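Thread: quick sanity check before group meeting

JM: Hey all, I'm pulling together slides for Thursday and realized we never actually wrote out the predicted structure for the chain we discussed last week. Dropping the sequence here so it's in one place. If anyone has concerns about the input, flag it before I start.
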Amino acid sequence: MYPEELVRPMRAELSDAGFEELYTADAVKNAMSKEGTTLVVVNSVCGCAARNARPGAKMSLDGAKKPDHLITVFAGVDKEAVDEARTQMFPFPPSSPSMALFKNGELVHMLERHHIEGRPAELIAENLKDAYEEFC
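JM (edit): ok, ran it. Output follows.
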């Protein structure tokens, strides 16, 4: 588990952009059962999260269509919440960072770490915007 002092600015990067931070399995279940579309970002301390994932997630929200709900859990910190989010992302294996779009509780789009790592934030944002166009 990472110390809170280390992850606080990484959390803030998403929460300041409107993402709701979730810390428990029940909070994740409740958030993901809401009607409409929900973007879930599994945040992480990994370099590709800072360089690509968080900026890409934020940039994806500047289009005409966007998810109804934005949530985030932090890998290596919020174990219970992350485990529940990953359960909802089955059959995809756990990876962090990762992003998933749900519509009415059903997984409709997934970005695993290998889709994020080494790709610029702009490309990640475009991938998400395409999903928003289709599902939001």
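AS: nice. The two ends are 35 Å apart (CA to CA). The CA atoms of residues 65 and 132 lie 6 Å apart.
JM: adding both to the slides.
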